[in-house]
Specification:
Number of strands: 0
CATH superfamily: dinb family like domain
Organism: Adhaeribacter terreus
Number of helices: 6
CATH topology: Four Helix Bundle (Hemerythrin (Met), subunit A)
Helix content: 55-70%
Pfam families: DinB
Distance between the termini: 40 Å
Shape: globular
Largest sheet: none
Number of domains: 1
Family: Belongs to the DinB family.
InterPro entries: DinB (IPR007837), DinB/YfiT-like (IPR034660)
Keywords: Metal-binding
Strand content: under 5%
């Protein structure tokens, strides 16, 4: 196996999770809309706000990677939801499903040998697919960890 393919394989493992922590499917299962909208004293966000932020950011990164006419979002306003809770369970479930789908889309981009991991995007500021894949993995892991801490504080995670 060549180094390029080994790098792709390692990126995919990182995006899937399950090496240093459980896969995202396990970490985000069984969250209820009620739980997702509960506030914790001294924390500025709810589980819903973290999940929706993860989804928005993930799809922004994917849009950047796939669209040469990409338009930057305004930080932080466009990246964080105003609502503290999902409208209902269906909205929450859709958000979580879209996070999983978005990660699979990034995996497909990384898997495709036609996509150069190290070529800078013409519409960016030095970003590469490798950097964006690492960003997705790091951002997802970071905020998923926060979701788990919130669930523990709410008593809904063991």
């Amino acid at each position: 196996m060549n180094q390029n393919q080994e790098i792709r394989n390692q990126l995919i493992k990182l995006l899937e999770g399950g090496i240093a922590y459980q896969p995202i499917e396990e970490l985000l299962k069984d969250i209820t809309a009620d739980e997702a909208g509960k506030s914790i004293s001294h924390l500025p966000y709810t589980i819903w706000q973290l999940l929706e932020h993860m989804r928005i950011t993930l799809y922004d990164i994917l849009e950047f990677c796939q669209n040469p006419d990409y338009q930057y979002l305004k930080w932080p306003d466009d990246y964080w939801p105003k609502e503290v809770a999902p409208a209902d369970q269906e909205t929450l479930d859709k958000c979580i499903a879209e996070i999983k789908t978005g990660i699979q889309t990034m995996i497909k981009l990384v898997q495709d040998p036609a996509n150069d991991l190290f070529k800078t995007f013409s519409h960016g500021e030095g970003q590469t697919l490798m950097r964006e894949a690492l960003l997705v993995a790091e951002h997802t892991a970071y905020h998923t960890g926060e979701v788990i801490v919130l669930r523990r504080l709410l008593g809904t995670w063991e």
